[in-house]
Design goal:
The chain is an all-alpha fold and 100 residues long. It has one domain. The protein is built from four helices and no strands. Helix 1 packs across helix 4 and helix 3 runs antiparallel to helix 4. The longest helix is centred in the C-terminal third of the chain and has 26 residues. The radius of gyration is 14 Å and the shape is globular.
């Protein structure tokens, strides 16, 4: 079957999500404003394009100002991507809950 969830990887994604709230100052209300795929697009950029696009030049489909494009090493970028995907899933869950 499936192996155990890699505890460090999952924990790091959750800690990055918390950092986005506690350090960057983001909130669920802020995330809810990004309802046209921006969170998923940003996650995709961090997961796929950080080696090809340096810090000063985000990929063409980066959804925000280039000031927010801050790639690091591959693992850190994947953790950021995971946290952004988690944010998008949470946003979708809230929007579905509100529609019921």
């Amino acid at each position: 079957m499936f192996g155990a969830i890699p505890a460090k990887a999952a924990t790091d994604v959750i800690l990055e999500r918390k950092r986005q709230f506690n350090i960057e100052g983001w909130s669920h209300e802020h995330d809810d404003q990004h309802d046209t795929g921006e969170l998923a697009a940003a996650a995709s950029c961090y997961a796929n394009y950080t080696q090809a696009y340096p810090e000063s030049s985000p990929p063409p489909h980066w959804p925000w100002s280039k000031d927010w494009w801050k790639p690091k090493d591959k693992r850190s970028n994947l953790v950021r991507a995971g946290a952004l995907i988690l944010a998008e899933i949470e946003r979708l869950d809230r929007s579905t809950k509100g529609a019921n």
